Every structure is written in structure tokens, then in C-alpha cells.
Amino acid sequence: MVIIIIMIVRLIGCGAVGAVVAEKLDAVSDFALIVDDERRRRYSDGVYVNSRKHIFKMEGGADAEKADLIIVALKNFNLYSSLDEIAPFVGENTVIMSLLNGIDAERILSERFGADKIIYSFITDLSSNHNGIETVCFSNGGNILFGEKNGERSERILRIKELFDNAGQRYEIPDDIIHEKWWKFMLNTCFNTLSAILDADYYSICDNAEFIRAVRIIAKEVQRVASAEGVKITQGDIEEMIRRVCALRDHGRTSMLQDVDAGRETENDYFAGTISRLGKQHDIPTPNIDFLYILLEARRSVLAKR
User: In this structure, are residues 230 and 271 in contact, taking their beta carbons and an 8 Å threshold?
Assistant: First the structure.
């Protein structure tokens, strides 16, 4: 007799990333959203992904069950405030996977819950627009890259691989997850920031030669800072980033552009701001990225006064 062990999966953050991932994992695991009272009310009548209604199980601190896997799908500026919400779900053998953009989430989660509970991860190739409880996904659920910091194909990595296989969730397990995280960080710093300043969706980006010229200029500054941090980003990495984004060719909007559209806080400080700070630490000039940071904040101020 075959014994099937159902993985206990908890996810916090049900926006453009979280809702799409939740839809896939709900059918193949003991799945629930981690919620506070406000999110419990907001999601009580269901969450929509491509017009399909999903009523996910929800749990808060009072009814928390220790999870095998916790997926964090928030924005960076919400991470610190979520740590207390996540804590009741963390048990002795819990694994925590962050799908946040940038390069700081694993450090923050490790400081609170221990580095032994953290695997390194991010999501790419996800084109989706989110508004309230409705998400429209233009891609097949995105591609999750994950792995141990040292590249080991550990038992817990293989368990998550099996979970994603059963869910139909696209994934990769790269040999060097730190390099891949910096690659995605470069993509966010280049494309998210420029798209938010220029109000450009993926379709308007793909054949825009001047937009891509600007991307290459910004990417060079990221490349120099990454090298100082011990991460080698090649010209091939830059060209692959451009190819991947330009292949989307749909009317999806980057997460940062959606935040600007909605008048929400952006992750500008975690993209351009991080490169500026690291550049100063390593005495590496980043004038173009510094200017992008200022331009985006200026655009947000202009829109706020309209």
C-alpha cells in the first residue's frame, strides 16, 4: 500500500504572485492562507484568478498549525510587520520560502527564524495584474527558482520539487541560486523601475529600442555592484534578462507599475535604493540608478497631487 503524505503549506500574501501560486497548491496540499482579521474579511467571499473563484482555507495566530512549508509572497515593505504573523506557523521542521523581490528577504527571515529554516527562492516569468481580490494572469503561473544556499539537492528541496510537480507549478533548481537571485534583482531594478517611470506595459516595452538601451545602461551599474558583492553577472546574463522580459509581449504591467497606478508604496527603495547604498559601501558610482530612484519618487509625488 502506498502512503501519500500531504504537505502542510501556508502562504502569506494573496496578491499578483500569491494568488496565482495559491491556486496551484490548494489542490495538492493541506493549504491555507495566513491572515489577520482584515485579510480574513477581505478574502471571506473568495479570491478570483482569471475569473475563477477560489475560497481558500484561512488561518491566523489563534488557529495556527505548524507548517511543513511557508511561502512568503508579500512586498518587501510588509515583510518586517508580517514576522509576528508567520511565527505561530513555524515549527521545528518548517521550511520558509520567500518569493519577494530583491536580495534582503532571506537575511531578514534568517535573523528571526534561523538560517536553517530558509531556502533561497524567487519567481520569474510571471505576468499578472492584481486589483483587490481579482488577479488576471497572462502567463502560466510563473516560474519559481529555489534551492539551498550551497546548491545541495537536499531532502527538503526534493520534497518541494515533488509538491510543485503535483501542482503543475513551473520551477527550476539552479546550481547557484545566489547568482540567479541577483539576476532577478537586476531585472527588477532595470525593468520595474523604468516601466513605472514611463508607464510602460510589457507589450510597449518589447519593441522599444530606447527602453532597452536604457536597460543596458542600468544593468551595467548593477553588474559592477554585484561583482563587488562577489557575484559575477555576465553580458550573457544581461541579454538573457532582456530576452525573457521582451518575450512576454502582453499587456501585463510590472508589480512596481501596478503599485504606482494604485497610489501604493513601491519597492523603489529595495531595488534602485539597494544598489545605490551598496555602491556607496564599495565606492562604486551609480549615477544612473541614483537618478532613476529620484525620477520615480518625483513621478509618485506628481500623481499624488492630481
Answer: no
Q: 129 Cβ partners below 8 Å, 6+ apart?
A: 16, 135, 136, 138, 252, 253, 258
Q: Describe the strand order of the beta sheet including 47-49 as a list of residue ranges.
A: 52-54, 47-49, 134-137, 128-131
Q: Provide the β-strand partners of residue 137.
A: 128
The 3-class SS string of 197-231 reads HHCCCHHHHHCCHHHHHHHHHHHHHHHHHHHHCCC
Q: In the numeric block, which cell numbers belong to residue 84? A: 509576528
Residues of the chain with pLDDT under 50: 1-3
- Residues 72, 13 contacting (CB under 8 angstroms): yes
CA max distance for the chain: 66
Say if residues 59 and 34 touch (Cβ distance below 8 Å).
Answer: yes
Alpha helices in 145-207 (DSSP H): 155-167, 177-187, 193-198, 202-206
Query: 120-160, pLDDT tens digit by residue?
Result: 999 987 766 677 777 766 566 789 999 999 999 999 999 99
**What's the start-to-end Cα distance of the chain, in Å?**
66
Q: With 0-12 CB in 10 A as exposed, 13-18 as middle and 19+ as buried, what is 186?
A: buried
